[in-house]
Fold these 3 entries.
Entry 1:
Amino acid sequence: MENYSNLEKLSNDLKNLFQNQNEKEEENYFDFEIICEENKTSFKTHKSILSSRSQYFKSLFKSKMKEYQENKLILQDVSSSVLSSILNYFYSGKIEINLENAIQILVFSSKYLIDELIEICSKFIQKNFQIETIVDVLKLSESMNLNELLDFCYQFISENFKEFIKNPFFFELEENHLNSILSNDRILTSEFEIFQTIIKWGKHKSNINQEKEYQKLEKEEKEKIQNQISNVIHKIRFIDFSKKELKNVLKEDLIPNEITQKLIQFQKLQKKPKKNQVEIKQFLEEENQNENSLLFKPRIRFESSIIEKMKDIQKIKEWINDDEFFSKMKLGFSAKRDGFSAKKWHSICDNKGKTLVIFKGNGEYIFGGFTSVGWIQGKNDRFITDSSAFLFSLVNPTNSPPDKYPVKKGMTTSYSVYYNINNGPCFCNVCLGAPYKNLKRGKTGYFGQCFTLPKGIFYKTNEETNYFCTGDGDWQIDELETFFI
């Protein structure tokens, strides 16, 4: 028995059936009419096609309502061009989505329960969105419960907050939108700038001139702004303010008294951090138990072009297990920015103590390592002891889940980190690293010699274990990022 398929011809035949509806010989084949109220354009269709392509029409015909009896439906909420495109899609399975019609087709598809087109339009908008329309798309997604598209909008605004707030459409956001955005632990903008932006938003919503300095506002105007931002201010991470910024904010009476008192209390404890270490820890634990308040929960300002998913960032934070380092570390070296040179890497990254290294290799694989001591200048071509060092993989050819690979039990930790002024960052006996002057090439060798291997992979010989990270022992470095305080 052999099976044959010609879906392309089926698609074309059905498309021609719909498009040739005005030819007399075809008239009697249609049993339902859809009229576009906008310009009285009429489209003849088939109930069987409509009901198989849309849950809305299936329910309409099943209920035998007026439209079913009259074999006619008048639509007031769609243009004739959009309706024509959607009906063509019903028959042929083909549709052209562009920047002009994507949102209109999405709105229609959501209302008339066309799941395929909802998914198609959502993906198109995510791929081709324009920052000018992001607030409109956000509000539309919210009203239609399109959660995937809504999450995309919030994530985009959070990741591009600095650029986003320069545009006037920022002020179109409502309080609930700001709360969702500010709840994101990753916004790559200083917290003080976020705070200033919220004050501007409060001014706008209170109809107060943006040019008027806060100090010169009337008491009544200040109260208006404070009331406007009262449910948003709890999402500002005041713990990320510098001492000078916090002092200025408290001096200018910009925030509610309840928050002011907490900040003053925290300030007093911080004046003697070593003496008040226990009290500070207890204070922060108590404050962070309140899910509606994020005042003392630091934001994750992880400036990586390699790792963008929040779940992966959280994994690395969990593996390092040092909140202070993770909140304070900065992107010190980027090969794309600073050059693919071992000499340059050492000039920037030596003697930095705790250091996180992230590689992107062979176009798609993501992995790296962490050392609590770093690459310490001294005698060349030597190993550095570090019992806390580990390697990690996030994306690999074997599809193993993200995991951390610490130094093997019973293995001497004196081989954890390798220092050579002519090489880039290397762990162990080049288990993983960039052992060349040119940082465009990396190497994985004897991967399981010093560090543990994923479950199901066993250390035997160099050839059998050096392909785990990229599928190759020698690989191309697409980007190398190094973080430290």
Entry 2:
Amino acid sequence: MHCPLGRCCIVSVGLGVLWLLFTLDVPKRVEDDQARMAVKVQVAALPSLRGFGEASEAAGSSALAQGSSGFGMHTRLPATVSKRRAQVGAALPTAGAYTPLRGGKRERPGVREPAPRPLTPPLASPAWLTVGISSRPRPGPEPSGLLHTLLSLFRATSKVEQKRLTVLVHLAGADPAWLGETVLHISSLFSPQILAGQLLLIHAPPDAYPPAGAGREPCSEQNVDHAFLMSSASKLSEFFLLLEDNAFCAPNFISHVQWKVDTLRSQPWVFLEFANLGVLGKLFRNGDLPTLAHFLLLFYREKPLNRLLAHFRVLLAQKDPILCTPFLFYHRATYYPLNDRQEASGAYRKSPYAPDNPPAAAFTDMKVFEVHFPWEAYTLDESFFWTHNVSAGSHLTVVLNQPADLRRVQVLTGTVVDGKCALEKGQVELGYGPEGMPQRCSSFVLLGRLLEGQLDQEVVPRSMGYQVSCVRLLANANQTGGLIVRHIYLWEEHARDAGHLG
């Protein structure tokens, strides 16, 4: 009796051990299989940059992934965001000729229509805001300020805000070397944003543009660039914010934009303006983007982009622009050498959008502290002049080394985001007749009064801008607390056309 009972105990223990080993081994195998599957998916999802720009576009061996838009765009997107391309609406008709295809479809000559390549499931919900940027190569060692703009954009947004944000960049132009280098730099600097689906890059091939000699001026290329950009962004989010590739963004701008949208929710508008420079900082509803893209393609040769946008706004019954202050976006002034000889001599050519700010000295009778000085308000970087407890009649005056013909003056006071420490009551004056040592102007003429601490005004009549020697910011009332003078920007009349050196 003891032997059969002992054998039964041994068999039971053995079966229990085998069952335990089996239950522990199966989950481990499943986890190993899942890990191997995840690695395979990640390897397949990350496109390689090797050989980018070397293969010809005709061979179709570029490292940029094929896009799904009917414009024949080539899109470099990771696996986590490639499905968004399939959500973009059908392509808008372009201004070029079309040829019939079988099945009643039409296609532009020489433009391929690649099929979408979804690698991941669709996103649970689109972003609240898409920031769109179109960039082209420019002459000089620093072809564009795109990288600086992207750095400013992501640094100005918190982790929570970035979850509601998609940045769409259109790399326009036919230079494969610039395209490859730009994609390489963006991929190395912003790989977390790319993998998270927060940064998308698109490229429209050259044959999608009007042929040379058919009204293909810089402004027409810019219009077509932005038509592609807006069409691709039409279903990515609820709102679309247009920036330029040389912009500086205020901190937490998304929260301020959303607050303004909520404030104006009951009012009809076509687009809001969070800057007053060119096309920078304009906010659209994404539902209007297909119509706007079509509009730009129809009239791409008629007007520059900023004037077409203004005309589009009027056509949709928004007569006056809606400026949202304080402004959240500004142009970043960039300088680069013209050539080796001018680089050795210290001569630089500036971006065509940047102010000129000819050589000058800055003086003030306000209190000066050891941290911020008057001349910092006249620099082209992000430094500023700070003072405290301003009295009526106090001034900050810029005295030019040589009289200049000015066409535009911009004075910005207060903080970038909330406008604190702005000059509440003040005016800007132009001075003439320099005299004395140190120099000062013998007479001044009122240019304009500050509105919410800011002035951006063309010099009218033009004769008033000739031979200006001083620009003076004058306080009209006592003001307690701090005062920040961020920028005093000057544009010369002939500097841009003559290729001003400064």
Entry 3:
Amino acid sequence: MDHFTKCFQTLLVFHKPHSYPYQRHQSQFKDDILPSSPSKSGSNGTSSHSSVGQLSHQGPVKRGFHYLYVDSLQPSKILLSFSALLNWGETTEEKREVSVGSRAGVLQVQPHSWRTLESQSPLLIIRTTSCRAAVLSLPPGRHTLSVHVRAALGYHVHLYSMAPFVFGDEEAVLPHLAQESVRFREQAASMLRALASLVLGFSREQTALRTALEEPCCPQTCCSGLEGRTHRQVFNSAVYTMLSQALGRKLTPEEGFAVQALTADPLLFSADITKHSTTSEAVAGAPEGWQDRQPTDRETHAVTILQAGFKGVLTRGVLKASKPGTKENLTASKTLADMWPSVESDPEKHSSILLCSILAHPATIAGLYPCQQDESSRMAFSDYTLPLVQETLSSWLLVFREVLLVPRDMLLSAKVFSPVPCCQLHVINNDTLEELPQALGRLVPCVYRPNEVGETHTKTLVSLILRTTNPSSLMTDDSVNT
């Protein structure tokens, strides 16, 4: 036994695979080995899925490609069991010519992103000539991984985990990336719970409630100094935005004053007034004699004194309303109690608005919340589906054209799924009439900026390929995911 422990530092024993609550398995075999047919999957008390399909005939080695999506608050471990069906050769000469390394099946797991064409280093590699299992350990958060499988005649991949995950193709994974991550929802919910406790107990002692609000809203990394004050202003502005959207209108002066008392921020609306006011509105509201003239030094000094006086009155009023036991505090507490049911009508939506407003603010510190690491994998997509019609002309055919208007700077990527191999997607900037760059026939993900005319997405294909393709396959859908 002493030599055994020196030779093997780690011994993994897997038993009772049905004890794992989440399971997925995928199988693909060469068509002359096993016909394409669905196989039975799952067991009582488990979440499981399987599929059996045909591998590509291109090349001596058969390949498969899948996606793995994991989103968890805790570190997760996924057991991958990989079985490869290999061609050992029928004669002694064939067995001698093929080395063991070239015969081995390979499973490789690596991070994946639709935002870039660059490949990342693999997290796990399994090589086997029969069957082998390994554990993939992932930190908390959202992860999107690609699973590349290579085998001679076929393979079977089985995944087990105590945490939920998704294993399949793009159609199975992309809808989950359009949603907020688990850490995002948990962070937003903790913020809203702490804020609700302060609102409901606003007329009582607030020291403990405000301290409890600081923990989820203002982490220790920025609780002091200039960064702390800036972040509190960002949070206060997000609270105002959430309440405005919950009520579906602008806040009345009484409601705005109550929000200032809740956040203890007399300057809450100063940035909002600067943002939404325009010079034309200011000129339209000025008397006719004041238009097209510069104020004198005496007038400027008088306005400065008035503004300072008004600011002092407002600051004293807000601080007085934020202290329990005062008449102003009871009035603000009643106003907040009348506003809060609109927030509680859909807490998940409004908590998301609160946190999104914080993260979208330019002054928000990068890496302030753990959920910010998950935003890099978040994406939305839109499908454009159209049928292909058989043509006999030997020319390029325009089968898809769409003009997209970009409201703000956005990172976009386009991908084509088509039964016709010879097809090309072009993206043209309608302002400059320039085509966006491509790499290896694929559109490079890039940042699209707002313009006047928009971006035109066109897809062309050669009719000669359509003519030589099986006509029955030409009526399948060709979709562009953006």
